[in-house]
Amino acid sequence: MSALSALPFLKPVHLRSPRSSPGGQRRHTLPASEFRCLSPEDAVSVFEIEREAFISVSGDCPLHLDEIRHFLNLCPELSLGWFEEGRLVAFIIGSLWDQERLSQAALTLHKPQGSAVHIHVLAVHRTVRQQGKGSILMWRYLQYLRCLPFARRALLMCEDFLVPFYQKCGFEALGPCEVTVGELAFVEMQHPVRGHAFMRRNSGC
Asked: Which keywords does this Swiss-Prot/TrEMBL entry list (predicted)?
């Protein structure tokens, strides 16, 4: 059984806008809003959103296209995309890490035996920013992680100006991150993930 099929709350409730054909027959339409794990086929759409979101701010992307494909091939179950009428509007990509704190190697490695989910990137399409989608997607992602038996905590690194956003999402700052990218320095943050047994009893996982 896939991770997705075991998680009822992540299966999208397809919200459709009723549309009728001229003859009064209801037409099939794409779901208005859908959350699902990403696949390698989504990599180009992911990179286009990420490139626009990050290059204008920091001059570089957390993940380049080949790295996106790398993680979506290795651990697609640790990604989550938000689609509206079939179009990707926001996403998160993660991988597993097996140490207490992030190191430079965490930027490119997936450690299958790890219990920490390293969130590499969260990005929202420019046309739907300032609508709270980033917070909603992170909330759904953390709920999803709570149903994965191996996940114990989520880790990420961000620049100072993003710390308040992630604190509102429930993350706590651990202090300066060991990882640097060029001249950029980061704060490392973590969020505890409750045990699988608790969530299975309380949320139908």
From this structure: Acyltransferase, Biological rhythms, Cytoplasm, Melatonin biosynthesis, Phosphoprotein, Transferase
- Helix, strand, coil percent content, the chain, rounded in steps of 5: 35, 25, 40
Those residues with Cβ within 8 angstroms of residue 105's Cβ, 6 or more apart along the chain or in another chain: none
The token pair at 112 is 């299958």
Task: Detail the DSSP E strand segments found in the chain.
Answer: 34-36, 79-84, 87-97, 116-124, 153-158, 172-181, 184-192
Segment 108-137, tens digit of pLDDT: 999 999 999 999 999 999 999 999 999 999
The Cα angle at residue 79 between residues 10 and 115, in degrees rounded to 5: 95
Segment 40-73, tens digit of pLDDT: 999 999 999 999 988 766 667 889 999 999 999 9
Residue ranges per domain, the chain?
33-198
Could you say which of 3.40.630.30, 3.40.50.1000, 3.30.450.40, 3.40.50.300 is the CATH number of the domain covering 33-198? 3.40.630.30
Structural contact between residues 119 and 110, judged by C-beta atoms closer than 8 angstroms: no
